[in-house]
Design a protein that fits this description.
Order of helices and strands: HHHEHEHEHHE
Largest sheet: 4 strands, mixed
Strand order of the largest sheet: 1-2-3-4
Structural class: alpha/beta
Number of domains: 1
Shape: elongated
CATH class: Alpha Beta
CATH superfamily: Response regulator
CATH topology: Rossmann fold
Radius of gyration: 18 Å
Number of helices: 7
Distance between the termini: 34 Å
Length: 141
């Protein structure tokens, strides 16, 4: 898994450790010592709970889905779910008009969104560079 290796390498260069937690539940997240060392992409976790715990334990986390940044997480970078669902709707429309699913071309979301939560950054004592703020699709204040 190249993403995990990249995360581990980046964590090490910042003097942090990197651990991947199982998605089996949130009990692991109750332990601050474990949480301080984790950067997670967790689509099955409760957005608000994960963002709150990350902030409480000063975890610098970047999430895949914008809902985490909206719930109080530091930032998110990932596919635009609005774009993904719009494309899915177009596929459904074509299938309902008689197209065979096997004949439809594979399409991958090409729109990526960067959402930064300034309120959380301030709470963590971080200064987000102006260049990064300028590139963000949305800045939550």
């Amino acid at each position: 898994m190249p993403d995990l290796r990249s995360g581990a390498s980046a964590s090490k260069s910042c003097g942090r450790s990197f651990r991947r937690l199982p998605r089996s539940g949130t009990s692991t997240w109750r332990h601050g010592a474990a949480l301080r060392q984790v950067i997670a992409t967790a689509p099955l976790f409760d957005n608000d709970k994960l963002a709150t715990l990350a902030l409480r334990h000063a975890v610098l986390a970047i999430y895949q889905r914008r809902e985490f940044a909206e719930a109080g997480g530091l930032m998110s970078y990932g596919a635009s779910w609005r774009d993904v669902f719009r494309t899915a709707g177009l596929y459904v429309g074509q299938i309902l008009k008689g197209a065979k699913p096997a004949d439809l071309p594979f399409q991958e979301s090409t729109k990526l969104e960067l959402v930064i939560n300034i309120k959380t950054a301030k709470a963590l004592g971080l200064m987000i560079p102006p260049m990064l703020l300028a590139r963000a699709d949305e800045v939550i204040e």
